[in-house]
Write a structure and sequence with these properties.
180 residues; mainly alpha; 2 domains; signal; Lipoprotein
Length: 180
């Protein structure tokens, strides 16, 4: 018999190993890409944020770009987005999730409604109702109906709140994230 006995299971080990690696490699590659995006890719994501659609506009390019980026963030991290709006804008989480399921309500729109509500001392539902009633002039028109003009103190607080959310999300801050 001249040699040591090797079980058929061990003779198949290279095949099992090859099959396991073939199945695992796509998952490993995807996890690695997710990890890279989570570490250094966020700066690229902000830098490559899409140009926002001209409507509905907040009347401020700085805000418009961030609302478009918030849409991207919420697509990738829907639970974190819902938690942020719920916790920091005093909105029931279930309401945030329900709003995201409504036609025409992107994450940026939900965020803007709740952020505007906070700075004017109204519930988010009041701003949602006002937007639903008339949004022909975009978020700028809705904000004005609540007495918020660009460069007013409430508007600066709204912008500050956006910057604060970016900080909590560990997303790179724009140079003017802390407007005066």
């Amino acid at each position: 018999m001249g040699g040591m006995y090797v079980s058929p299971i061990f003779r198949m080990k290279p095949l099992w190993l090859a099959a396991a690696l073939a199945l695992a490699l796509p998952a490993i590659a995807a996890a690695r890409q997710d990890g890279e995006a989570g570490q250094g890719g966020q700066a690229e994501a902000v830098a490559a944020a899409p140009t926002p659609a001209p409507w509905p506009s907040a009347g401020d390019p700085w805000v418009d770009v961030r609302l478009a980026d918030i849409n991207l963030y919420a697509e990738r991290y829907p639970a974190s987005f819902a938690d942020e709006v719920s916790r920091y804008y005093s909105v029931p989480r279930a309401y945030v999730v329900a709003m995201l399921e409504q036609p025409g309500w992107s994450a940026g729109n939900v965020y803007m409604a709740c952020a505007l509500a906070r700075v004017v001392g109204q519930p988010c539902r009041a701003v949602v109702r006002e937007w639903s009633r008339d949004h022909q002039q975009g978020w700028l028109g809705v904000a004005r109906r609540f007495g918020v003009e660009p460069d007013s103190a409430p508007y600066r607080r709204l912008r500050q709140g956006i910057g604060d959310s970016y900080q909590r999300w560990a997303r790179p801050q724009p140079a003017d994230a802390n407007p005066g």
